[in-house]
Amino acid sequence: MKIAILSRKASLYSTRRLKEAAEARGHTVRVIDYLRCYMNIAAHRPKVIYGRKALDDVDAVIPRIGASQTFYGTAVVRQFEMMGVLCANESQAIARSRDKLRALQLLARDGIGLPVSAFCNSPKDVEGVIEIVGGAPLVIKLLEGTQGIGVVLAETNKAAESVIQAFRNLDANILVQEFIKEAGGADIRAFVVGKRVVASMKRQGPPGEFRSNLHRGGSAEPVRLTPEERATAVRAAKALGLNVAGVDMLRSNHGPVVLEVNSSPGLEGIEKATGVDVAAKIIEFLEKHIETGSTRDRIQV
Predict the structure, then answer these.
(1) Where in the chain is the domain with CATH 3.30.1490.20?
(2) For residue range 105-133, what is the model confidence (pLDDT) as tens digits?
(3) Under a CB-based contact definition with an 8 Å cutoff, are residues 220 and 214 in contact?
(4) Best exposed site among 3, 34, 55, 261 by fewest CB in 10 Å?
(5) What stretch(es) of the chain map to CATH 3.30.470.20?
(6) What is the CATH number of domain 117-179?
(7) Which class does domain 2-96 fall in?
(8) How deeply is 221 buried, as exposed, middle or buried, from its count of CB atoms within 10 A (0-12, 13-18, 19+)?
(9) What is the pTM of this model?
């Protein structure tokens, strides 16, 4: 196969590992800066052009689209789809995962466990939103935040009201969720490829920190998932139409609850924590589906 990895930098760990894994299996790989691609949108011969040359010989694409570049990145992925190229994740699925509110609504529609969550527009409705999630302590999230940025734990109702009103006065969209105290500042990242979990790790936040993101100083170790956790991760990825996904869950008193589903999950943390060659699993997925093309997105909404 001729594989294109859509990434801003070839030196990034995930990009480098995917390239190494594909080349080790005999494939030709090219790292493409998707922001430098431009498109010829024609009815019969759609093209993606990079360096003034048409990328018309690509068999498969692995999108590594940054959260801040979702609009243009998904446009490039969509153009490859128009050309009949196999995409590890398709544009609609990536867009769904990046819209955190839309993603939670789709997960809820499929009966997947979530923290009690509420969303409002007017600062006048703050008290009602706090009541929905059971009062403080509660978590307030910026819908546009990533890697734990824009996530606040409010210890009291008054603190929650102040934070919510401040965010809304800045016209920021926020989500209010119950605080899962029993998780103890730890979450689980399940890495889904196709229809199965290929690796999983437990991430623990540093002392005094309720966020477990590795970018924020958290630690990681391999973890054995329960059958329910494994099934929840696979169902969550499927609900959003993702073939490759990092599903973040908390262990609550009423079972696993999904926090977020990431369409461009990093490989470094999970490969180093588990010793699993996750990059190779992604390449194997492409090999399996290149002939059938059976990765088409059929999720509504």
Answers:
(1) 117-179
(2) 999 999 999 999 999 888 788 899 999 99
(3) yes
(4) 55
(5) 182-289
(6) 3.30.1490.20
(7) alpha beta
(8) exposed
(9) 0.91
Residues in the chain: 301
**Strands 28-32 and 2-6, sheet pairing:** parallel
pLDDT in tens, 228-266: 999 999 999 999 999 999 999 999 999 999 999 999 999
Cα dist. 247→119, 138, 260 in Å?
Answer: 22, 21, 6
Bridge partners of 245?
Answer: 192
Distance CA 294, CA 286 (A): 10
- CATH classification number, 182-289, choose in 2.40.70.10, 3.40.50.620, 3.40.50.1980, 3.30.470.20: 3.30.470.20
Q: Confidence class of residue 55 from pLDDT cuts 50, 70 and 90? A: very high
**Strand ranges across the sheet with 186-193:** 219-222, 196-204, 186-193, 244-252, 255-262
Examine the pLDDT at 88 and tell me if it is beyond 80.
yes
Q: Is 30 helix (H, G, I), strand (E, B) or coil?
A: strand
